[in-house]
Automatic annotation (TrEMBL):
Organism name: Natrinema versiforme JCM 10478
UniProt keyword annotations, A-Z: Signal
Protein name: Branched-chain amino acid ABC transporter amino acid-binding protein
Transmembrane segments: none
Coiled-coil region: none
Gene3D superfamilies: 3.40.50.2300
Membrane among keywords: no
Residues in Leucine-binding protein domain copies: 15-359
Length: 409
């Protein structure tokens, strides 16, 4: 390993943040990273040291991510890397971070393979890698299937159309959703994987309508479903739109589409701060909104899901280096890993703890489960007006019951 290039401790503590800055999700993550560093510096620092934050734009491009990550590691001597959004970009820098023993906290990418094909296949080489959130796509698939069972209980919806991005993070959904729905007594009546390069939703909506689906379960991160939602509202199609829609997490999304997103749902880390997932969730969102209410660029009211995880990641980092008694993480990687595996941290998006070596998902954030064994740390929100969201699942975080579109009632 590259111990010859020491960490940034001798030159001051440095945290590197990676995000697509042309994306509002990346902007929100950068802002929460700044909030965390500023607040924690004021609260005694990181083992007594003040941290410097440096953000680099990955542009959602693997080659660009490799370039800026190398700069952060070799020129800035970072003690921690945090961030990244799409799984393909995250995958592209795993070898680089492990080569130089740099702790790397993933805060935006959900593909299970990021963990199973790195830490899970060569623990010693990739032990620097941890995922703060969201829960991986295998757990997301299970959680969403249980949410579908809730929709069946509430509305008697049993016929499901299934759409997804053609992207790494959705592969587990394609592999697992059909069986998970069948196990819960639901029928899959339509299925398609859509190109992230562009989709004509006219034929898609017609096909779903012809399938007589009760609702569409869609997983979009790279596809903006705004055209789909506009067609849905204008055509008053007789099916709900459920699942995961990352663009729809934008706090002003429904206003941007003149209310077309009303009644759509999306799962998202932190539930946009509309429900007290922990005692820290809503104060965090209120602080964010106050700080950025006059910002010229979005997101203003809340940071979107990656920002919740980035804030938690930097907060966990402080707890760990305080326990280590040093911020020189790259020269003390084994100690860092040991402390990380002892973490049980109450964050703004939920409780943070990690699977250990030898588990199916070593160093992955653990899912939380309720009394009925259903996953609880992947909450679902629903647009109920142009400006308002409610949390509709799971029960312990629910602020309102799920509503079907008025034209279906």
């Amino acid at each position: 390993m590259a111990g010859c290039l020491g960490g940034g401790g001798s030159d001051g503590l440095t945290i590197g943040h990676l995000a697509p800055m042309g994306n509002v999700l990346g902007v929100g993550s950068k802002r929460t990273a700044e909030m965390a560093v500023e607040e924690l510096n004021e609260d005694g620092g990181f083992n007594g040291e003040e941290a410097e934050l440096i953000t680099k734009d990955t542009r959602t491009d693997p080659s660009e991510a490799q370039s800026v990550t190398e700069e952060l590691i070799q020129q800035e001597n970072v003690d921690l890397l945090v961030g990244t959004f799409n799984s393909e970009t995250t995958q592209s820098i795993l070898d680089l971070t492990s080569e130089f023993d740099v702790p790397f906290m993933i805060t935006g990418s959900a593909a299970p393979s990021l963990i199973t094909d790195s830490v899970g296949s060569d623990y010693e080489q990739y032990k620097n890698v941890f995922r703060i959130g969201p829960i991986n796509s295998d757990f997301q698939a299970e959680s969403i299937a249980d949410y579908c069972a809730y929709l069946n209980e509430r509305h008697d919806w049993s016929r499901v159309a299934f759409l997804r991005d053609q992207a790494e993070w959705t592969t587990p959904f394609g592999d697992q959703i059909p069986d998970l729905l069948s196990e819960r007594g639901l029928e899959l009546v339509y299925e398609d994987a859509l190109s992230i390069e562009g989709t004509d939703f006219g034929p898609v909506m017609s096909d779903i309508n012809d399938s007589d689906a009760d609702f569409v379960l869609r997983f979009f991160a790279h596809i903006d479903g705004g055209d789909m939602l506009t067609r849905w509202q204008e055509g008053q199609y007789e099916f709900g739109i459920e699942g995961v829609h990352v663009p729809g997490m934008h706090p002003s999304y429904n206003q941007l589409y003149s209310g077309a997103a009303t009644y759509e749902t999306t799962s998202q880390s932190g539930a946009a701060g509309v429900t007290p997932i922990t005692e820290r969730t809503q104060p965090f969102v209120e602080s964010y909104a106050e700080r950025y209410q006059d910002a010229e660029d979005a997101p203003i009211q809340a940071p979107m899901y990656m920002g919740f995880n980035t804030y938690d990641g930097i907060s966990v980092f402080k707890e760990v280096v305080d326990a280590m008694g040093t911020t020189s993480t790259r020269d003390n990687l084994d100690d860092f890993v040991g402390e990380m595996l002892d973490v049980d941290f109450t964050g703004v998006a939920g409780q943070v703890s990690f699977y250990g070596e030898g588990s199916e998902y070593p160093h992955d954030v653990q899912e939380e489960r309720g009394g009925d064994d259903t996953i609880t740390n992947y909450p679902v929100t629903q647009w109920v007006s142009e400006t308002e969201l409610e949390c509709v699942y799971p029960e312990q975080h629910r602020t309102a019951d799920h509503q079907m579109p008025t034209w279906m009632q």
